[in-house]
Amino acid sequence: MFWGDAGRRARRWSTLVAAGALVTMLGGCSLFAPHTGPLSASTGTPSASSTRTPSASAPGSGSLDGSATPTPLVPEPESTPMPSPTLTQISAGTVVAEGDVASPKGSVHFHYRVVANGDATFSTQFSGFTSTLPVPVSATLLDLAPKVGDGLTSHGVGDHQLGGPTTTAAAPSSAALEGVGHDPSSLGTLVTYSSASSDPSIPVEIGPDKVLAVDTVRWSIPVRQSNVHPVEGAAGPYAYGVVTATTASGAPKSYLVAHGDRAVVVAKRFGISVQDLVWLNADVEVFGQQQYLLEGTTLNLDPDSL
What we know:
alpha+beta, 13% helix, four-stranded antiparallel sheet, Membrane-bound Lytic Murein Transglycosylase D, Chain A, Immunoglobulin-like
């Protein structure tokens, strides 16, 4: 009787061990493995639907397939035709800076003014130049102000020789401001300096490139007019970014793209069309048919910055 009970117990243990081994073996099969994503019916491999891509039904989702490539931002068809964006340049002859120059010792005098040419360029006009110095005198615009008596290491923008010693005022003259774009206001200093040749007989204080006068330029550049007027709206799905700068009038000037932002929704947030957004950001690129913007991109919203 004792041996019969022991035998039955041994057989039960062997049956449990065998069952455990079978479960372990089946655990390695895909049918019993933990489910990790959609599977293809034929191969058991992840299907295309398991790749994370931006979805219009999932606000804030902006993940893209690693194979996604950027494309230029293209305006979407509008139900109502929108006018083309425009920007009016500052009218020709508009004076944007003006002043009188007199060297500290009274040797040099002249008047200057900076005027718009009407095509997003500017020129400096000089008049009434007189000088009692025995060397030619020039003027230039710089962003950083030197001191009288310094030697110039750069001739700046709009460098122009005014003339030599005079008995009467010299004829008016002018110089183009090249390479400054539509806003030359970073050039805060007009420097008058000696353009003498290297002659040892010339006193050091009026020698080559010696600064004779330093004058602060006070700019008054009007804002160029446009028919595009972005107005900041509330953040929301697909337009969660932030305005990072505003214009002097308080209008949004730049926008930092957030994760999942779409071009069409960002444009609507600021009350402009995608066509306007393309015009303001000619080089911006997007991803996918829904035109997702790249997170961290800064968009221009100010027509006067173009």
